[in-house]
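re: that chain from earlier
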Amino acid sequence: MTDLKQEACALLKSRQVIFWDFDGVIKDSVTVKSEGYEKLFSSYGMDVIKKVRHHHSLHGGVSRYEKIPLYLSWTGTTSSPERIQDLCEQFSNLVQQAVVDSPWVPGVREYLQINHTDQHFILITATPQEEIESILNALGIAHYFREIYGAPKPKTEVVSEVLNRLGCPAEQALVVGDSSTDFHAAEKNNVSFLLRRTPFNQDLQKRLQGCSFDDLNF
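^ sequence. v structure.
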């Protein structure tokens, strides 16, 4: 086992309450989401597609309810709440099964299975609530999490509210994520952060000095 992996393992096992992101942390599904956004806006030309791809790569933890209005504004077409909702539904149809079928991040499912009765696992994700519950049920892992929070609930608020309700000190909690959104949720609540390294978060890797991992195959 590498020193980095040993450090990540030790940090994980030392905390009682673990907040897990989903895309890029449990399932290697960030690319699936990127392809979904690109298909959604494919009729607007390569300039828009390139902007969409670049923005999503930098903001993986941001909800589609924020991304789609932004991407729609780049097309020069008329926007409306109905149009945005329609695109959100199209996006869900494009990506939900693909997320279920995407590869597992090695070792994470096994860690959840072995430790979910000893540690308090909470899922926090930008995926809409109903959709993430459906995905977790399809994967057979919903029962590993004591609580599940999807969009539109902001991750920073979830971490704060859960710690307060559980009476859990910040030093007994950990956020495991792969995006700036996940890091800020940890930072704003004085909670340690464990980064899952991906090709999409190299800027974040350079900025952070804390623990990180590629996989959890110990």
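DSSP finds ten helices and six strands in the chain.
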